[in-house]
Amino acid sequence: MVTCAGKEGKRRRFRSMTSTDDQILAAPIVFRPYFKRVLWGGSKICRYKGISSDATDIGESWEISALPGQESRVDGGLYADMTLQELSDRFGAQLLGDSVLKRYGGKFPMLIKFIDANDRLSVQVHPDDKMAAERHSSLGKSEMWYIIDAEPGAKIYSGLTEAMTPEQYEQRLLEGSITDVLAEYETAPGEVFYLPAGRVHAIGPGNFLAEIQESSDITYRIYDYGRRDSAGRPRELHTDMAREAIDYKVRDTYRSPSPSPDEKNCEIAACEHFTVRRLIIEGPHTYTFSRDSFTALMCLEGEVTLNYPGGTLTLRQGHTALLPAVMRSIELTGKALLLCAQA
């Protein structure tokens, strides 16, 4: 984990806090990010967040996570240092929403990240819920990507250009030709990719993106270009496990429709696991939530102030807030581009 010092000090605090659980819960929650150092990471994440660090290998910033060992902790206020799962255990439906509580049994079901691909990521696939439950006692991993920035020539690899059998997949791995049948797309800011479990994919160098996914860290690495880890060992591959997880069918396109720049409030991804909307805030705007769910707000550009009955919270570029399910609406002011994710 990398520790970065922010311009505003180590902790942000809400302007107004009260003393009862119900009232405290009816306020946005901010967590300390978990910075993941990886061989393909870079230096963009801390700069994007406006915090200082000399690290050059940060590949991911986990903004909201309930995964054991990598749980988000509250950044200031009455519940400072409590983990996200501890909050879920304490408040239940008030935080998660009744339907989310019933479906996931009190477990927080999403993982929210920023990703900086300074180098190419491995070719990989994720299991679906059924397979992940049987093999790992975990949720599966469907995910979506929103491209925040892309260097010239940056690409996303998603899906297959040729239908294959499991035997043909294994043969291509032996030949080192699996990348020849990956669908590739040059990327630009504002583009969206939805990747259901089972879809082979990889992130190419030069992509900076937001990722919203199921709460799972189960990844089957298929191909890694012969790279070695920091100790000089070949990186582990999961050829056999991936074989049964891959969706071998071919589709016409694997790129999701991109929202129009003029749309101020539009849905950009929807599946059984999550719904994501893009919001453009220009001045005062009251946003009402129609789903019985918590809401994660990621600020991708600009700055927005969240006004609620107990106080205000300013959310700046690169930062994320969690709104409990009991917050049915919120007033947003400022000029910002946001992603709004619900379960």
Description:
Strands 16, 17, 18, 19, 20, 21 and 22 form a 7-stranded antiparallel beta sheet that branches. The protein has a 6-stranded antiparallel beta sheet with strand order 3-5-7-14-9-12. The longest helix has 10 residues. The protein is an alpha+beta fold. Helix content is 16%, strand content 38%. The N terminus is likely disordered. The chain is globular and about 60 Å long. The two termini are 27 Å apart. It contains 8 helices and 22 strands.
Order of helices and strands: EHEEHEEEHHHEEHEEHEEEEEHEEEEEEE
Helix content: 10-25%
Can you give the mean pLDDT? 92
Radius of gyration, Cα only, in angstroms? 20 Å
Poorly predicted regions: 1-23
Topology readout:
Elements: E1 5-6, H1 21-25, E2 31-32, E3 34-42, H2 44-49, E4 51-52, E5 58-64, E6 73-74, H3 84-91, H4 93-96, H5 98-104, E7 110-117, E8 123-125, H6 129-136, E9 143-150, E10 155-160, H7 166-175, E11 182-186, E12 192-195, E13 201-203, E14 207-214, E15 220-223, H8 239-245, E16 265-270, E17 275-282, E18 285-288, E19 295-308, E20 311-316, E21 320-323, E22 329-342
Antiparallel strand pairs: 1-4, 2-6, 3-5, 5-7, 7-14, 8-15, 9-12, 9-14, 10-11, 10-13, 16-17, 17-22, 18-22, 19-20, 19-21, 19-22
List keywords for this structure.
22 strands, 343 residues, 8 helices, single chain, 6-stranded antiparallel β-sheet, disordered N terminus, 7-stranded antiparallel β-sheet, globular, alpha+beta, 16% helix
